[in-house]
Structure formats: C-alpha cells, structure tokens
Amino acid sequence: MNAFQTIIQKYYGQEHIFLLTTENKFEFLQYVYNRGYNNKTRASFFIYLYILHLFVESPSEFISKKFGELNKYVTNIFMSETLKDEILNDFSKIQRIYYGFAKLAHIYKFKKAKVQVSSDLCMNELNPKKSNVFTLLQNKSKYYFAAKDLINMIKNNLSNCVGCVPEIIVLKNPYNNIPLNRTDLINIYFFMRWNSCVIPELFHGFFLCDFDLKKFRDDYETTILNTHIKNYIYTSHHDTLYPLFNDMWDQYRHITRRVIINEDFPKDKLINIMKPYLHLYYISLYATNGTYKQCSADYILRRKLIRFRNFNPRFGRRYVRIKKDIRKGRVKVVTFDFKHVNFYQPDNMGSLMQRNNYVMHEYYYDSNELRTILNALTDRINRETGQTNREPSVSISITSNAAVNETPTYYEEPNYFSENSSDGETASDVDSNYDYDEQNTNTNIQAEEEKDTDSIS
Description:
By secondary structure, this protein is mainly alpha-helical. It contains 18 helices and 8 strands.
C-alpha cells in the first residue's frame, strides 16, 4: 500500500515523500501546490486527488477500491476523452512500475525462503523442477506438494457434506493450518492447467465463482452432493460399508433371494465387488430429489442386480473339499465362489427388444440359445397384444448356425440416463425378461451339483 503512493510521488519527481494520513494531508497538498508537482502533466492533478481519496479516506480498503476510484475519473461525463486517455496512460505506467517491484520482491522472498517440507504425503522426496510438483510460499517458507495430493485435498474439502448437506471446508495448508489466500488458489489452478493435470470439476467451478464459498455452494450444490456420495462409497473402509450393503440386499430381497452369501465370505472382497451397486443405491436414497440421476438410480440398480443374480446364483457360497495328501493325509480345503458379472459390461439382455415397436436386434449366439430367446420374446409379445389363440400374431424365425454367426452385429451399450429410458417399468416387468435365463441357470446348477459329489455347500 505504501509502495504504491511512494511510486506515484516519485513518478512526478517529488523530493520529499509523504505517507498519507488524516493528520498530514494538508501539509501534503501545500507541498505539492507550492512546488508545482500537480502541473507536471495534465493528468497529474487528478492522480494526486486519486491517491489522496484512496489513502486518506479508506486506507484499509486499498486493494478493493484501487480500481474503483480510478473508474470514477474515466467515466466522468464532464471530462474530455483526451484527458481520460492521459489519466489512464499515467496510471498504466505507474501500475507497471508497481507490478515490477512486486515481482522483484516475490523473487527475492522466494529465493531466500527456507524449505520446510520437501516430500509428499507418502514421504517421497519431491523435485521442485519437475512439472508435477507445486511450490507454495507461505510465511517466508516453501512447501512442496505433489499434484495428486493437491487434487485429493481440494476434492475432499470442496465436496465435504454433513448429513448430505454441503458444508465446504476452507482450503488450508495441511502443514501449518493456514488458509490459502486467493493468490495461492489462482496459482494452484493455473499450475494444474499449464501442466495438463485433470482439474477437478468442483475446483473449476470454484474458480468460476471467483473463489466465493457462498456463491459456489449455492451454484454447485447438486454437484457437491453427488461428488460426496461417490467419494464416500469408493474411499470408505469395507467395515463401514458392510451395514449399508446389508440394507441394500434386504431391500431388494425379491431379486437377490436366490443368492445366498455365506457369512464367512471375505468382507473386503465382497464390498469391492458391490461398490458400484452401493453407489447407485446411495444415489437413490440421498441424491438431490427430482434430478434425473436420482430418479433413474433405483431402476438401473434393479436391472444390474438381476444381471448379477442370473449370471451366477451361487455367488458367495462356501465349498469344503477334501483332498488327499501323501504326508498330511486328508486335508480340508475351504473355497468361496467369487464368479460375478462385470458391472460395466454392456447389458445385452436389456435391449433385446425395443419397448415401443418390438424391433429385434441381431446377436452372436448359437442357434439353440437364440431359439430359446426368440420363443420367450414371441410369447411375451402375444400376451401383451391380447392373442390367446394358438396362432401367434408375431412369428419369428431363425436361420442356421452358419447364417447367425456369419456377420454378427455388435451391441452398443444403452444410455441409462437418457430421456428415452422407461422409468415406469416395475420389477416384475424386468424379471420377465430373464425368465428363460433362470430356467437355463437352474438346469446348469443341477447338472453341476451332481458332478461335485465331494463338495459341501
């Protein structure tokens, strides 16, 4: 603040420099007028009035009112355009000198500052010359941060919620608990941008809100809550998520009743498999009401659980096998069934028939499996169209194995969150799409259980 008024007085050649206050403002004006410093240029008179109002009337608000006071002069309708240009020209030169000294002071402080922390949060040494290392200057000390640590810290603080209500934590230096100022946040943002880091969505929104916490919370409330839900599911310990899994499993018991998970099944592996399902379940419970994501989460979760059940109904079962060992004799070996469907695998069964016009897609199946699918779909179409006689209203035929497998059409995953998805479909409607799968699965289970004579489930 004092440097800026000093530069202005030196710019116009003053020999005696005043630090303006309420007590010395008349002495300052008398000194300037008696020696003619206010007549150095046409703009000098207004520049002196500018610093007089700025540093005497509101010295504590220098930064916030610096350009606001200048704007009063350049928007004055009683000033000529030539005079306004001269004022801006003098101010620009003074401002350039001020920024030059400020940069020089920053370089000096940066070089003289001592390194307090030179490792990341995992105690790995960091090289400040690398592009993924950010150097924070605070209280005449330097702190090194890895880009991944900065991103995780920012995401956790900006997505913090208490009882599913956004409660943003002020970004601080974790080593000294000092809040980061606006300059530090801008430096971090452009450090990520210039070094091709993936800028978190919330941090980008925080930047667009000019780092105003209240405005950011109001404008990005839905995004904050969705990010918090995702972070909670994918970063929490399995012991924390296990009660939530039991609640989900009980709520959708009409779908999951055939899947009996042994109580000795490893909890960590179970929760790792179920995290995507728990994410959908948590969204359906706590996401912002009325959003399309929240309304569709329950429907998508039912479809995914049905695929999970039909793929391997024996998931989670415990098997005890007796093996013979020459040295130890009969040894008991305990195993669990971990086979499960990939959650992110395209749901082919969900798009076998478009619900509006019953258009059949082509798939790469053998003739026996395809005949079973077509028969099930034909029966359903006839039921929905009201056909009760023996002659079906829709007849679907298939070709030989060679014709079916000759030119397969690959399946494209549907967008579950698109506006064309049917939210009104009940669980019984979705179950009917998989009736043929359940029959085939039961047959395979019985055949396999007859072969495993030495196993105990």
